[in-house]
Design a protein that fits this description.
The protein has helices at residues 8-28, 41-66. 0% of the residues are buried. Helix 1 (8-28) runs antiparallel to helix 2 (41-66). The protein starts with 7 loop residues before the first helix and ends in a 9-residue tail after the last helix. The chain is mostly helical.
Length: 75
């Protein structure tokens, strides 16, 4: 896999988050609760992985802003 050096850590965070989710999902199962019923363990697992991946998304957005080309037109 190829990625710019400044994104390698982010790619690793995405990979680790997804890998962790899959391992835990295999342990607890995929059954989710129906609307209106108390949440099951899988519901908490999904919420946790979404939160972690959202945090990585925010880091990625910050990196892309700092690496964005300047708005000043070239002469």
């Amino acid at each position: 896999m190829k990625s710019p050096p400044e994104l390698v850590a982010l790619v690793e965070e995405y990979r680790a988050g997804i890998e962790s989710y899959l391992a835990k999902r295999d342990q607890i199962g995929m059954a989710r609760s129906l609307p209106g019923l108390p949440p099951l363990r899988a519901d908490f697992l999904v919420a946790d992985v979404v939160k972690k991946l959202d945090e990585v998304d925010a880091k990625r957005a910050a990196v892309s802003v700092t690496n964005a080309p300047s708005a000043t037109p070239a002469k």
